[in-house]
Amino acid sequence: MAHHTPPPPKICPACDGFASAAVTLGGRDRNGHLRTITAHCPACQGTGTAPTRRNREGARA
Fold it and tell me: How far is CA 35 from CA 15, 21, 40, in A?
């Protein structure tokens, strides 16, 4: 019996797999650290992969 492997996840076309980015807020805190926020890709919600389409075998288009 053959073992099927799942296909590799598709990379999100909106962010090319770089789903999160640190954005500086333009200043430093009292300790001298840069103030940053994390921005996530709105298309993949920060996962870096695109949702896979289910291939319905036998379904007619």
Answer: 23, 13, 17
